[in-house]
Every structure is written in C-alpha cells, then in structure tokens.
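## retry 2 of 3
previous attempt timed out at serialization; input unchanged, resubmitting
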Amino acid sequence: MLKDVQKLPNENIIVVKYKAPFQPIEDIGEAQRQIAEILDAEGQTMYRIDDLSQADMVWNQFVEGIAEATKDVAGSMTDARINGVLVGDYEMVELASKSMTQDQYGATSAPVFNSLDDALAHARQNNV
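## retry succeeded, writing output
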C-alpha cells in the first residue's frame, strides 16, 4: 500500500513510504505519477527516497516492483531528474538496489540504508 509521497519543504528530497499490503504495480505506479507532478512543478533534480521498511515484500512483489520502479516513465528511478535511494533492512531491498544496476533495469544506482534517517542524511550530504 502506498502510504505517503511527500516533498520535504525547502529541500530537493521526495520521501515515498510504502506499507503492507504492498501492491507494487499500483503503489509504485501511483507514486511515480505523484513524483512526476512534483518534478514538473519544481523543475530540478531531486532525491527520491523509497522507504520499503514496512512493505513486507515477497519474491513476486520484488520482481513486479523492480520492473515498475525502473520503467522508462517520468518519476521513476530511471528518470534523469531522480537520484534514487532505498530504505529497508531486509534482503529484498538490497537485491533491488543491486538489480537496478543491470541494463535491463535501466543501469541506475540506488544505495540502501537501514533507516529513513540515514537515507535523509545521505541525501542532504549529497544534495544536488
């Protein structure tokens, strides 16, 4: 379930929070539509932090999620205006990050952090 998409005030950071039950195609697709609107309004590169710590993914959701998140659409992890970051302390989130570097998923990079606070610190230190 898509819990929240929020552009942080006065920062180039968008935080996307997911929770169970996670429906990757619907949830990520809706998040990307909202992110695209924010990007169009702001007109600048932003960090997209996807917090999957409460999504409770299983294998088929991982497969659907990585495909949806890396589609060639506005607001996706492969959008040139996005610097992607993932949050989660379980194996599938780490695997998602590694998978994104493959050509079939857009050859993009999204570091993984165990907590939203750590991901925010990374984005703020590397602010674009």
